[in-house]
C-alpha cells in the first residue's frame, strides 16, 4: 500500500458542538413526497430490517423478565454475564450503556477534561467530533488515506498528531468508508503511541477503537486491552444483531479503565426490557452467524445490482456501501430522486470530504430491489 507523506492536519479550537445531523424522518419524507409511510425505506442508518427470530419469539411469547415498576439491576448483572461470555472478557472488563453512543459519551465525560485534545482520523463516524466538541476539546483532524488505499489510517500522521493528545478516536471497520484497517495497522499504531509517550515521559493517550461493525468480519482487537492499557473497544447490538431499537452497547477494556469510566455512567439508562432481551440474544449461539451470512449475501447482491445499474460502488466488509457519484451536485440530485421514491440514503454536506458520495445500508431483498430499480430509472432519466 502506498503511504502518503505525513499529511496536513486541521485544528479546531474548542467550539460549540455542531450536533448530530440526521436525514429526514420517515414521517417527514412521507409527508413531503406524498408517499404512504410504510413505503419509506431507511438506507441511511446502517440498521437491518429484521431483528433476530429469537427476540421476536420471546416478545410474542411474553417470555421476558419485566418488572416494569422497578429500575433495572444497578449492575445489569444478567446482561453483563452474557456479554462477557459472548466477547470472551471478564465481567469487570465491560461497561453497559444505552447503545454505543452512550458509552462514547461516558468516555468523553471521563477522559476529556477541560482543555483536552483529541485526534480524529477523518472521514469517520460523526459522533466522535460532536462528543469531543461537547467536552470543549480541541479536535485535531487527520485525513485518512484516499479511496485507492481503502481510506486506511495514515499511521505516521496520527502518531504525530497524538503527541499531545488525551484521546484518539479509531473506528474499524470504519463508518462511513466500509473497510477494516489492513491487518497489523492498529497494533503498529498502538505500539508507536506507546513508544512516543514513553520517550516523552507522559501518559499514553486513551485509544477508543469502535468495533460497531466488526462482527461482519469475524475479527476483533479486544485482546489488545492488556497490551495497550489505554485501549477501550466499543461494541453494540445495533448492527450485526439488528437490534438498534433496544439501545444496548458496551465498552470493553481492562478492569482499571472500566472502573475509571463507571462513575460517569448514568444509573439505569438501559431499560429493563432491553437488558433482558439483550442478555438472551447474546447467549444464543447462532444469531451472529445467521445474520452475518445473510448480510454478506445481500451485500453482494445489492452491490452487483447497483454496479449493474452503473454506479461506482466501493468495496465494503460491513452492512453498508459507499457509492461515488463523482460530483456533489450529482450526489444531491440522486439523493433527491431516491427520496421522491421513499428511499432515504445517507448524504454528506457539501464541505464534507465525502460530498460526492452517498452511503447506502444493505437492507432486505424487497427494499434493495426497489433501490436497484430506482437507480436504474434515475440513470436512464439522466
Ligand atoms: C461506528 C459507530 N459507532 C456507534 C454507533 C452507534 O451505535 P448504537 O446504536 O449502539 O448507539 C454507530 C451507529 O451508526 C456507528 O456507526
List key phrases describing it.
eight-stranded mixed sheet, alpha/beta, three-stranded antiparallel sheet, binds pyridoxal-5'-phosphate, 15% strand, 382 residues
* Structural class by secondary-structure content: alpha/beta
| Total of helices | 12
Strand order of the largest sheet: 1-5-4-6-7-8-9-3
Radius of gyration: 21 Å
Distance between the termini: 36 Å
Order of helices and strands: EHEHHEHEHEHEHEEEHHHEEHEEH
Question: Based on DSSP secondary structure assignment, what is the total number of beta strands?
Answer: 13
Largest sheet, in brief, is: 8 strands, mixed
Can you tell me the residue ranges where pLDDT is under 50 for at least 5 consecutive residues?
Answer: none
Strand content: 5-15%
Share of helix, binned: 25-40%
Query: What general outline do the C-alpha atoms trace?
Result: globular
Q: Summarize model confidence as the mean pLDDT.
A: 94
Q: List the quaternary state of the chains.
A: single chain
Bound molecules: pyridoxal-5'-phosphate
